[in-house]
Amino acid sequence: MQLSQREAERQERRATNLIWNAARDYSLAPVVRAYDTEGFADVYMNSIIGAVYSFYEFPKIKEVLDSFERTPKGDEFEELAWIALENCAFERAAAERPALRELRLAYAMRVEAEAKRKGGARELDEAYRIKLFHYERALGLEPEMPERDRKILAALELPGGLTTDEVVQRIRAVLREYYMFVATTSAGRGGGLPTLINFLRRRRGGIGAAVRNGEEGSAAAKNARRIKDRLAGERSEGEMREYVSDCFGLSMYAPGELKRIEERLCSGAHWDSILHFTRGELAPLERNNREAIVQRSSAKRQSGKNRKYFTDDIVRNRLTISRLAEKIRNCMLVHLDDARIKSRAGALAPEKVWRGVVLGDESVFTRPERGNDTELSVDILLDASASQIERQESVSTQAYMIAESLTRCGIPTRVYSFCTLSGCTVLRLYRDYEEPGKNENIFDYCAAGWNRDGLALRAMGWLMDRSPCDHRLFILLSDANPNDDQKIPNPGMLPGGRDYGGKLGVQDAADEAGKLRKHGLSPVCIFTGSDRELPNARQIYGKELLRIPSIGWFADAVGKLIQGRIQAM
């Protein structure tokens, strides 16, 4: 089942309230939340998360969870860690909250039922099988377990009296002993990628409610989309380019031309990054690339969901398009100068009357001709990072409505999306200026990976410089939350670097937006994020920021935006 954006947001708020209630701290900005397999906030697991916040130092817990992001078995390690956290938090909280015991039993029964639906313990991966055994024991059962599973579970069922450091040490000890996993404090290029498939809602082999992890909640979907990257840390640039092509489509540029583009754009904070421009044209897979197969399948499903979202309310959406197109058209009629051409009908041109008498030329009249195709072009850029996962349907619909309205007014329009994977920023072209019949391609929008906003803005500036029009409007749909696992390189190519995210990521995006303003390409952001990211959006885009409270306001809000730009021409 696919929740609507409104319902998904409601469930996020509910999960947060459950955590607040359990933690007894309403100032928390939870970085993890729990949802069932349908996407609804899970009462028991969110109560446990609140208990973990209450009884333990959560930054230390988060450091452990974050260490799993760059390992192929990260999802399973995260599941094992939450077995340990659930057990010790439950033991401490149950004494204060007797109702928690009933909630635990109900949750355990759901875990058992889902496992049966999947075929039983034998059909589950090891971590999820151990989770099943754990909750069967919570139900008072004594399941038959392989000896290895029994030992791992015994080590994970931590008592409630441990300190945070002891909990962390015990979890790491289990992973080190049984999985030879030693966490690192940082990861270089080629580390784990935000996943392209939602392992938390429909996780392969997974059972029960899953916990979504992310930075200040905004990156929750990123962990939900962690790639099983068997080549993590080992992928060469050539392999990375092949991988990205397999997942997202063939490059629009030949290797030599692309290198020249990268030499121009990939500098400063982005000198260690690469670019991939694509129309989404997929070639047959020549090798068994499981991640690419999964990504292609996921993108196809999302395309169907986007189209259904639009057609489910097609009357309203078509009316919105018509209203927006009318507003743009009326503004153009008033503010754009008309070129006048000779005609056999229209307004009489007195200075040409003599030609009719002397030469028999009947073209002594003039009529207006609008040169839309040479006056204004519009570029639309969609943030397609994993933080947009819960908003994919609404983002694609909004972008389509803008593009379709502009098309009806004869305004050349181009639509791109961007995301970043392990140092490669992917820009997907859905339709170009001279392709008015390809607006439907926008519904192929699919979120995945990180977002290196500064590089994407720089690339769009380069693309817009090539527009044939004198006036150019740049519209972004984004949550204004720059975040990338590829670090900002140190000066002089020294090892290490600084994380691209937080204040540094926002500042880089703001710097690039400022450069675009100086060149007359001022980006306007239609903000798709939450209140939490709003200060970031204001820092990056200043007053060029539009937040639409509901779809009913869409035509008026976007119409006013475009009208303002036309009037300023």
Molecular structure report:
It is a single chain. The protein has 20 helices and 14 strands. The protein is of the alpha/beta class and 569 residues long. The chain has helices at residues 5-23, 43-55, 58-66, 74-93, 99-117, 126-138, 147-156, 164-179, 220-224, 237-248, 255-265, 290-312, 314-335, 353-358, 372-375, 392-408, 453-464, 502-518, 534-541, 554-567; strands at 32-35, 210-213, 274-278, 339-343, 347-348, 365-369, 376-383, 413-421, 424-431, 471-478, 483-489, 497-501, 523-527, 545-546. It starts with a helix and ends with a helix. Helix 2 packs across helix 4, helix 3 (58-66) runs parallel beside helix 8 (164-179) and helix 18 runs parallel beside helix 19. A 7-stranded mixed beta sheet has the order 3-9-8-7-10-13-14, with helices on both faces. It folds into 2 domains: 5-223, no CATH class; 242-322 and 373-567, 3-Layer(aba) Sandwich (Rossmann fold).
Helical proportion, percent range: 40-55%
How many alpha or pi helices?
20
Distance between the termini: 47 Å
Give the full name of the CATH homologous superfamily of the largest domain: von Willebrand factor, type A domain
Oligomer: single chain
Domain unit count: 2
Summarize the structure.
With 569 residues, the chain is α/β, with parallel strands linked by helices.
How are the SSEs placed, and which strands pair?
Layout: H1 5-23, E1 32-35, H2 43-55, H3 58-66, H4 74-93, H5 99-117, H6 126-138, H7 147-156, H8 164-179, E2 210-213, H9 220-224, H10 237-248, H11 255-265, E3 274-278, H12 290-312, H13 314-335, E4 339-343, E5 347-348, H14 353-358, E6 365-369, H15 372-375, E7 376-383, H16 392-408, E8 413-421, E9 424-431, H17 453-464, E10 471-478, E11 483-489, E12 497-501, H18 502-518, E13 523-527, H19 534-541, E14 545-546, H20 554-567
Parallel strand pairs: 3-9, 7-8, 7-10, 10-13, 13-14
Antiparallel strand pairs: 1-2, 4-6, 5-6, 8-9, 11-12
